[in-house]
Amino acid sequence: MRIGILAACLLLGAQASAEPAASGESPEYVKGKETLARVTGSSGAKVVESLQDIAPELGRWIVEWGYGQVVSRPQLDLRTRELVTVGALTALGHAQPQLKAHINGALNVGCKPEEIVEVIMQMAAYAGFPASLNGIALAKEVFAERGVTVNRTP
Amino acid sequence: MRIGILAACLLLGAQASAEPAASGESPEYVKGKETLARVTGSSGAKVVESLQDIAPELGRWIVEWGYGQVVSRPQLDLRTRELVTVGALTALGHAQPQLKAHINGALNVGCKPEEIVEVIMQMAAYAGFPASLNGIALAKEVFAERGVTVNRTP
Amino acid sequence: MRIGILAACLLLGAQASAEPAASGESPEYVKGKETLARVTGSSGAKVVESLQDIAPELGRWIVEWGYGQVVSRPQLDLRTRELVTVGALTALGHAQPQLKAHINGALNVGCKPEEIVEVIMQMAAYAGFPASLNGIALAKEVFAERGVTVNRTP
Amino acid sequence: MRIGILAACLLLGAQASAEPAASGESPEYVKGKETLARVTGSSGAKVVESLQDIAPELGRWIVEWGYGQVVSRPQLDLRTRELVTVGALTALGHAQPQLKAHINGALNVGCKPEEIVEVIMQMAAYAGFPASLNGIALAKEVFAERGVTVNRTP
Amino acid sequence: MRIGILAACLLLGAQASAEPAASGESPEYVKGKETLARVTGSSGAKVVESLQDIAPELGRWIVEWGYGQVVSRPQLDLRTRELVTVGALTALGHAQPQLKAHINGALNVGCKPEEIVEVIMQMAAYAGFPASLNGIALAKEVFAERGVTVNRTP
Amino acid sequence: MRIGILAACLLLGAQASAEPAASGESPEYVKGKETLARVTGSSGAKVVESLQDIAPELGRWIVEWGYGQVVSRPQLDLRTRELVTVGALTALGHAQPQLKAHINGALNVGCKPEEIVEVIMQMAAYAGFPASLNGIALAKEVFAERGVTVNRTP
After folding, report:
1. Cα(B36)–Cα(B40) distance, rounded to whole angstroms?
2. ipTM of the complex
3. Reported pTM
4. In chain F, which among 3-32 make CB contacts under 8 A with chain D?
5. pLDDT tens, per residue, chain B with 154 residues
């Protein structure tokens, strides 16, 4: 059936990604690369690239399963997914590089900086002030790097 | 002195809630009660009530600060807030009663069951399968209690 | 290349699983079902089955990615994998149903009860006594259910 | 050899405990049993007893190292230690049986119920409302079992 | 309207703080600023200040709710509160900047360095050695910065 | 009195360690030093040394209880113990210095780099991608420092 899926993709010209699929890439991988690029620009691909000499399958899983299957599902839009991810990583507290990546990701898919800040602030009620403060510190870094300003009308 | 605060509110006509504020309730408390009712129906008020003989201030904080100040802010709609909360509590893994309450809360503010399931599933990528599986088990309980069915069109 | 993989499997008769692959099952899914059965007997399949009406893709991901890709890799034997999983779930502390499943899983793939107990005890040094105590309580349940005795020669 | 250790202790008159040390018990074990009894009454000893057939060394470590060495140190009084433990277990969120045991322990060593409640409430600021709510629920159980009432003068 | 609240407070003579309340500050905020200064010297105010351009309400919540309502309650003295906070943040493990702040805070409100070290050491039994080791590393930094020595008489 | 204990040991000929025990060292401490050296080379001893002026007992506990009693038990070989520890610390996510130490430790006791990578990758399924990614980043550091290459034959 995977043959069928691939065949269907090819027949239907479902291959809309700008970058042609490399030999050996499953349709989920191709889809995942597209979504990864939408969410992270080129930084996600760099993370995957950095895994090549030590744990390339981890990189493949992130693209093919994480982005290609989980995050690409149409049941929830990418903006909501990224806000949920920012909230969850803020609450967990131990995933700072990934939280920073997804604050960027949320901006990339169209979330307003005010929404991102709001989600991180809300986590104070569910995971305590330290988690929120550390999340806001990362948002501040990201916003400064990108020249984003937060509109604080009361 | 809280009566004085309330007096100030009344004078300023800040009191827009349908249910009249009890004596000694700050405007944030009144706002919080409204939002708590929208999110939890009557179950949140029961949790607060259950704290009266042991930790009433904790109940007041949840209403006045948590719901009156944090969750009531207009920068993010309640639907997104509830999905973020469901995601974060799923990822944390140790807050099962509250996760169940917020799966109900998400339904109460208009989230589709498919969206709730989607958020819990997405957490597999960020917090692992056990967190997602335990979240789905609670969603299954809630949906069964409310007669909600999940529309699984592929 | 995936076509190549599948072709190779078919040509080489790599399909050794007793249960024939249902239509629509990828080779990874078939491999995952095999490994899931080795680790969990029939209980893992029941968990997957229980997800059918609410989050069937989560079940598929567990089988196809979790067991078919991650756990089936030959770089580490199943005995070591299960001991590592028992240790990690003990340390995390919030995944009790899954910890119980993997204590069973460790026995199923040939770990000695003494080894399982040892791993859970070791977690006291890395995650504290409460995590270890709650893990041992689950091991005690599992061993009682299966009539397993722990050989405590000093 | 442990008999040799005990012999040394006896010769040096280090044995001040009311209950005579069983054969093979180190001075730290004897001290730990004393402190365990002060903190938990007889319930801690029952936990240790329950480990005898599966992980007796874990029980010995809890008594000998945990209570005999860590908790028995004179640098901090038992009341403060128990309040700190109640706070930490509330914040961790995954150690409910142990949190319940230490709410009892705090009462046993002379903490006022108001102090215990206060510590659990304070954790809302550092670990979020769910952690505090689940801690208060356990305190409510313990206080009900012991007929303890909380004095809530404003 | 907050001006109205403040007006009520002023009329009722509730304003006992040395530093005059700025326009728009609630009595809880004024109380929180006092407690924040007692616990953190000027560093807490700097954290709050750093939030002004991105998440000023988070700063207000920390002052008004966290310090003004939770930490200022008279049911527990500040020394015990700070030791509990140091213990909880050590156990959580993901809140290093806040743990460092509260090691300083504990010293500021009169805890002895030996007591702080003792609490962090005790967490080894409840959250494992890594949590304790990372907490001690921070205490070592703080003590070095302040020229504090730990009195290690056996 | 510890001298008394040591005397008993010496009389009983329990002292089999190559390095003579310093005055005041229990047999468990001596055993722990041996195991610590096998696992960490000289780096563990440096950690213990760094605790001397602030929390020397924590260092003693790590050697005497952690390595001397827990990790030295013969029921599980050191290779498996280190892989389990690497997995658990990866999953916990907040113990990065210790995770790095145990990636080194795993290599020191004979684990292959491929096995270490495999354990860290496996944690993606149980604790999410961020935990695995941060673990792999540390493994990459360690392998680079030691000139270790990972053999990635498919």
Report:
1. 6
2. 0.86
3. 0.88
4. 4-5, 7-9, 11-12, 14, 27
5. 333 333 333 333 333 333 455 667 899 999 999 999 999 999 999 999 999 999 999 999 999 999 999 999 999 999 999 999 999 999 999 999 999 999 999 999 999 999 999 999 999 999 999 999 999 999 999 999 999 999 876 5
